Amino acid sequence: MATDSGPRRTLPELNYHHLRAFWAVAGEGSIARACIVLRVSQPTVSEQLRSLAQAVGTELFQRDGRRLRLTATGRLVQDYAEEIFALGRELHETLATGRAIKPVPVVVGISDAVPKLIACRLIEPALRLPEPVQVTLIEDSHEVLIQRLAGHELDLVVSDAPLEPHQRVRAFNHQLGESRMAVFGAASFAKLAKHFPRSLDGAPVLTAPPGTSQRRAWDAWCADQGLAPRVIAQVQDSALIKTMAQTGLGVFAGPEAIAEAICRTFEVQLLGRIPELRERYWAISPDRRLASPALQAMTARGRDLLS
Asked: pTM of the prediction?
């Protein structure tokens, strides 16, 4: 990182006419060709280059025969000029067409308990909107994401738990829906489909860590059924659980709503359904009404998927 080596200089206001002349010369490689592009005389361009060099306090070009080559400062100024005039073109196009060219940024927090396949299904319609959207996804625990939402770092949180009153965050819950749970496993566990769910007694299971809502619900259901599966791994990441199951290490519970996608993506089989065990999902936003088309599209897809 660069550090100040002396007192900061005060530069005059940047003249964008001079900057455009510089940008044209840098791109064309000569003043003569830049004059054709800019449709101005050579003395005018030369004077604008001198004025810009005086303003920045150093030369921007050096002579190499008949060509002009950029100095180190010249290359820096050219990089900024490229961005400045690219934004100008975007603005012109937006005003001319009435449609935004620059993607609208949307930052979404995904709880690490939410299956990646559900998250992918939710994000997809936002990326297919007529207006361009740039989605940033941040995965973390429910608690951390809620705090980041409170700090205005996120536009939406997708979680398997709602915002609770004790969290003292001004935000609103939008229930997306729920899914019955099912148990999946590699082909080597296909025999567990027979006599399900009694066959789970003693079977190797991959689960979420203790204290999570999924684990509490799973343990309660097993106790009600009088089952004692053998927990061989407690994994926070839902995708890692499925990847481990794909290798035949154990079985796992997942949402029946995406059973087909789970089986296809991770090459596992549906071993049995658990109607009594359900997972619910929420979208949590700072506003009661979602004004962003991208967030509306995501929540609509969630409700459709989990209806």
From this structure: 0.65
